[in-house]
Amino acid sequence: MAINSNVLAEMEIPNAYLKSLPKCGKDCLGEGMYRYLTADQFFPECLLDYLDQSSEYTTLEIANRVEASVHIWKQKYSKRHSLRAKVGKSSWGGKVKGFVGDIETTKVLAQRAETLLQNLRLRFPGLPQTSLDVSKIQHNKDVGQAILESYSRVMESLAFNITARIDDLLYVDDATKQRASATAELMPVNEPGQIGAAPPIQRRILPSPFSYQRSLAGATSAMGASNDSDEIDESPDRRTCQLITNGNLRDALAGSLERLAF
């Protein structure tokens, strides 16, 4: 969120803040940080990894010290550069080389410190306002800039809350999906037609005893019906022969019984 930072950057640096700065950037930074800044090769990310950023207070303190050193070296560079322009090169003679080297060194140190401060703010975007920002707000006399600064600060706060809420919702949604997928893996469901599902078990249905009795009854009735049909299909002559044969047998039996009786 660079809205509020841009508004603060456009504000004029108060004289009270500049007067409160130490005269030397080394005293402001400390021995360790100053040694890294003045080295032949400068890597801001390595320097940030070296510094203690365990809490917001220590990180803000580092930002205040680096920002103060930036303005110390910028003031020195502007003063020496203006002095060099006023005096001119002809009157310096051979003694000008050392002074020019100091000017370039001051410029390089200011640029390195400013780069370090930018990387620190990129690494910690939610860093509170520095001492310079607070001093600008307190000593600002431009009403328009004051309104823009307060409005941008409120907008950044709302945007931060909305972003945090969206991140929470995305986290909960992701956790719910992972829990659902884990549950689905632990409880496999075998549905018909599903790849890898076991075929359904086919049970053999035994015939009912009632159906067996019905089949027997049907077979018996069918046999009886066939016998009846055979009797119906017999001709009258065949029936007459059977009756005569039955009558002869009866007469023979009756005669045999009479002989036995006498």
From TrEMBL:
InterPro entries: PRONE_dom, RopGEF. Residues 1-183 form the PRONE domain. It holds the Pfam family PRONE. Residues 217-236 are annotated as: Disordered. Keywords: Guanine-nucleotide releasing factor. GO terms for molecular function: guanyl-nucleotide exchange factor activity. It comes from the Eukaryota. PANTHER family: ROP GUANINE NUCLEOTIDE EXCHANGE FACTOR 1 (PTHR33101), ROP GUANINE NUCLEOTIDE EXCHANGE FACTOR 1-LIKE (PTHR33101:SF50). This is PRONE domain-containing protein.
